[in-house]
């Protein structure tokens, strides 16, 4: 039951405070990984695995040891703080809402600038529907990466699990690119993130289905997810698009080149309302997860007392 209470407390803290404005732990982690990359980089998969291990495993091991020797109340507080730092639910809303508001007001330049803070694609030439699609895709995909994935691994392994997941996800964002520099060095970061996200991504996709248009979400998941490059983003985005009843994917500009991507979902192009609906879908999913966790906690506690 303490795990469930820690989840509730961490989500409440995220809703109340959002991401730390100063001295975010991931900023320090980013500096450390830059040092590791500088000293251990080689165009080899083995070097990438070594660098990943040096960046992630000592942090997870230290947290595990400290929690084991700490008093129960302090270990629980650490659970809450680590999970809170791993979550990005409020941050997603704070990034997505300005996009939707600018689109609704017809302020395209502002909308493009706002969505540029959410995605890595070029945004200067995007039309209104493409801006809305980019924001909606970011909400759906990051719903897994910044919310449900952290909750899943916290439920399985506690604070060390949430920390492992968040650091691995961060390294994937830093090193997991198919570029000449990172194709081999970043291989381990990308594959480990794929493994850690396998179950959370599918639970996220099913959550979107339960909290949206179920039949549309499941149909899109089954027929479209495999077309996407990422084995985990495919189910999440296909199910999310189907749950919302909008069309996502399609060509998008990266580094001055329009790249072809499969289309996901059903219906018409998204608009400002689709961004708001994606946020509501995500929040309903979080409420569902917390309710299920609370119910399971009560059932298990009752079984222990029986």
Give the topology.
Elements: H1 2-17, H2 25-40, H3 45-69, H4 72-86, H5 89-104, H6 108-116, H7 128-175, H8 187-211, H9 214-224, H10 233-244, E1 247-249, E2 252-254, E3 257-259, E4 263-265, H11 272-305
Antiparallel strand pairs: 1-4, 2-3
Main structural class = mainly alpha
Number of domains: 1
Mean pLDDT: 93
Shape: globular
Helix content: over 70%
Largest sheet, spatial ordering of strands: 1-4
Q: Which segments are poorly predicted (pLDDT under 50) over 5 or more consecutive residues?
A: none
Termini separation (Å)?
Answer: 15 Å
Order of helices and strands: HHHHHHHHHHEEEEH
The tally of strands reads 4
Largest sheet: 2 strands, antiparallel
Please compute the radius of gyration using only Cα atoms: 20 Å
Strand content: under 5%
Provide a count of the helices. Answer: 11
InterPro entries: Cobalamin_biosynth_CobD/CbiB (IPR004485)
Subcellular location: Cell membrane
Family: Belongs to the CobD/CbiB family.
Main location: membrane
Describe this structure in words.
This is Cobalamin biosynthesis protein CobD. One of its GO terms (molecular function) is ABC-type vitamin B12 transporter activity. One of its GO terms (biological process) is cobalamin biosynthetic process. It is a multi-pass membrane protein. Belongs to the CobD/CbiB family. 74% of the residues lie in helices and 4% in strands. α8 runs parallel beside α10 (233-244) and α8 (187-211) crosses α11 (272-305). The strands form two sheets. The chain has a two-stranded antiparallel sheet. Strands 2-3 form a two-stranded antiparallel sheet. With 306 residues, it is mainly α. β2 and β3 form a beta hairpin. It has one domain. The mean pLDDT is 93. It is globular and about 55 Å long. The protein contains eleven helices and four strands. The chain has helices spanning 2-17, 25-40, 45-69, 72-86, 89-104, 108-116, 128-175, 187-211, 214-224, 233-244, 272-305, and strands spanning 247-249, 252-254, 257-259, 263-265.
């Amino acid at each position: 039951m303490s795990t469930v209470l820690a989840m509730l407390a961490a989500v409440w803290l995220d809703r109340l405070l959002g991401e730390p404005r100063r001295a975010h732990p991931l900023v320090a982690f980013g500096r450390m990984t830059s040092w590791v990359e500088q000293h251990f980089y080689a165009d080899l998969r083995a070097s990438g695995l070594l660098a990943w291990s040096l960046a992630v495993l000592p942090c997870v091991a230290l947290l595990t040891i400290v929690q084991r020797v700490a008093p129960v109340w302090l270990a629980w507080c650490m659970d809450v703080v680590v999970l809170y730092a791993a979550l990005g639910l409020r941050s997603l809303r704070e990034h997505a809402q300005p996009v939707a508001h600018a689109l609704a007001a017809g302020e395209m330049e502002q909308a493009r600038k706002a969505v540029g803070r959410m995605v890595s694609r070029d945004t200067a030439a995007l039309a209104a529907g493409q801006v809305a699609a980019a924001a909606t895709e970011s909400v759906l995909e990051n719903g897994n990466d910044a919310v449900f994935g952290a909750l899943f691994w916290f439920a399985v392994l506690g604070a060390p699990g949430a920390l492992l997941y968040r650091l691995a996800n961060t390294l994937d964002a830093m090193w997991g690119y198919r570029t000449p520099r990172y194709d081999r060095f970043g291989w381990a970061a990308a594959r480990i993130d794929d493994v850690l996200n396998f179950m959370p991504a599918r639970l996220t996709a099913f959550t979107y289905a339960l909290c949206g248009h179920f039949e549309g979400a499941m149909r899109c998941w089954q027929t479209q997810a495999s077309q996407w490059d990422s084995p985990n983003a495919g189910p999440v985005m296909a199910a999310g698009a189907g749950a919302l009843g909008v069309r996502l994917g399609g060509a998008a500009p990266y580094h001055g080149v329009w790249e072809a991507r499969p289309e996901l979902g059903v219906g018409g192009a998204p608009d400002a309302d689709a961004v708001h609906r994606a946020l509501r879908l995500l929040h309903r999913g979080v409420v569902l997860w917390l309710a299920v966790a609370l119910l399971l906690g009560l059932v298990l506690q009752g079984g222990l007392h029986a």
